[in-house]
Amino acid sequence: MKIRSKVDLPVGQNLQDHTSAIIGPFIMDTPGLTFIPERDMDFSVIKNYITHGTGPITDPASVTALAKISSSKALASRIDWPDVQLYFVPCGVYKELSNILTTTQGYRKKVLDELFQPYFGKDGFLILVTLTRPKSVGEVLLKDKNYASPPIIDPHYLEHPDDLEILIEGIKISMNLVEKSKSYQRLNATYCSKPYSQCLMHPFRSNAYWECYVRHFTISAYHPVGTAKMGYSSDPTAVVDTKLRVRRTRGLRVIDNSIMPVVINANTNAPAVMIGEKGSEWIVYNWLFVIVQRFVNS
């Protein structure tokens, strides 16, 4: 692009993110177990929330439980660091659900309608099977010389075959949990029996079917990290040092999740706060040192 750079560093490389495959709906034949706005939302729900801070709308994301699991590949590596996270979303199935997921997650509405429409009005839940130790690594690149142009973001999702295998294993674990555990069977929870139309060329619930399904229904968990990697001066892939200072520059730091060398195997909000606190602490200490030094020399 013929852009003269002040410093040549691998900014934008090492992009890592968590991906989630949405599984469901799982249907329960006992009414009232989950929240369906079209059926359950009324003035008393809003009043209860405003006056007491309780009720179903206190949890807007509808994620009520999490599970962390080590896949067979993680266990075989003898590093018991869970690589699958399950989000349990007891949202029921209602008409607006397709629109919400289309807006927030980028699905095509007709794809979700095919999945949900036969079960509108039913109590149920979804499970998000999330890959938390991805091996696929992406990149962020400049589109052109125009600073206002959006960058090219290529996450390379599912490029590494292990990522796909682990997601499929996570789906099977979720299915077994619902279909074989006593707790879920007491609720008569069942997986929807209608195969997705774009995967009909494969036997329903076979590995090939789940691979096809995952490639259609996997989304970002919005946990991107790594594009300004922290590392030692001997690491050619590092952008910042261990004090978050951009290498070979002065007065410039990166203080956000992009400095993570490897994505953590959990949600990234708390680490972002920690990185911000630590980075601001270093800035304060640096300026305190400068002020004290000026005072001593004056």
In words, what does this structure look like?
This protein is an alpha+beta fold and 298 residues long. Helix content is 34%, strand content 14%. The protein has nine helices and eight strands. Strands 1, 2, 3, 4, 7 and 8 form a six-stranded antiparallel sheet that branches. The protein has a two-stranded antiparallel ribbon with strand order 5-6.
Summarize the structure.
The protein is α+β, with helices and mostly antiparallel strands and 298 residues long. It has 9 helices and 8 strands.
Strand-pairing-aware structural class: alpha+beta
Number of helices: 9
What percent strand? 5-15%
Distance between the termini: 48 Å
Shape: globular
Q: Give the biggest beta sheet.
A: 6 strands, antiparallel
The Rg value, from CA coordinates, equals 24 Å
Uncertain stretches of 5 or more adjacent residues? none
Task: State the order of secondary-structure elements, H for helix, E for strand.
Answer: EHHEHEHHEEEHHEHEH
| Mean pLDDT value | 92
- For the secondary structure, the number of strands is 8
Question: Can you give the helix content as a percent range?
Answer: 25-40%
What are the key terms here?
six-stranded antiparallel sheet; 8 strands; alpha+beta; 14% strand; 298 residues; two-stranded antiparallel ribbon
Please give the structural blueprint.
Layout: E1 19-28, H1 37-40, H2 43-52, E2 65-69, H3 72-76, E3 84-89, H4 96-105, H5 109-116, E4 123-131, E5 139-141, E6 152-154, H6 161-180, H7 182-186, E7 190-191, H8 207-217, E8 218-220, H9 269-297
Antiparallel strand pairs: 1-4, 1-7, 1-8, 2-3, 3-4, 5-6
